[in-house]
Amino acid sequence: MSVVLRKRGAVNSFPRKTEFMYHVYNCLAKARLSFSSFDIQDHQIPVVFVSKGRAAGMAKFKKTALGVTYNLEFNIDAINKDWDEMIGNTIPHEVAHIVDHAINGKFNGHNRIWQRICMILGGDATRTHSIPVEKARQTRKVLYKATCGTEIWLSMQMHNQLQRGGIRIVRKTGGRLTSQECTGRMQAV
Q: Which of 20, 34, 98, 159 is the most exposed place for a label (fewest CB within 10 A)?
């Protein structure tokens, strides 16, 4: 078995996993039949499942001294919300990226070559999905009120810099932001 590129956040089981894997392996078999130069076997492409994130699926590559390691990654939230879209488009979409890279030796994005491969594998060759999925991370922001009266939401990184004694200037007004201007209000975005 090949190396799994993502371990953090990976999920081992979920309902219908066996059925989903059948479709992944079926698509890989179709790729081997359609493209004679694509000879990567199923066990050489680990399939990883994650519970959250904006991407419905991802094809991952990593060059090593021994060659290229490939992984397919799929979002369980997206699988549960739109099974048909994941089977009909996301699997061919991600497998097409791996086939394209394996055949051409480089990542071509969503260009015409990739589109052709994706359509041969049964996908519609669209770049994005419309499945409403949950973001993997929530970002927090902190409200500051500058000396000029302007209210600004700052990232946690910027907030921490100010708490350690940093100073920021509001470009439009010239107002200053320091740790004293923190209102203490936070929001998750």
A: 34
Taking only the tens place, the pLDDT of each residue in 11-25 is 888 999 999 999 999
**For 158, phi and psi rounded to 5 degrees?**
-65, -40
Tell me the per-residue pLDDT of 113-141, one tens digit each, with 9 for 90 and over.
999 999 999 999 887 766 766 665 667 88
| Domains parsed from the chain with CATH numbers | 10-120 (3.30.2010.10), 140-188 (no CATH)
Q: Are 83 and 58 in contact (CB under 8 A)?
A: no
Q: Which two tokens stand for residue 168?
A: 């920021």
- Positive or negative CA dihedral for 182, 183, 185, 188? negative
Label residues 68-96 b or e (16+ Cβ within 10 Å = b): ebbbbbbbbbbbeebeebbbebbbbbbbb
Q: What is the SS3 assignment for 163? A: helix
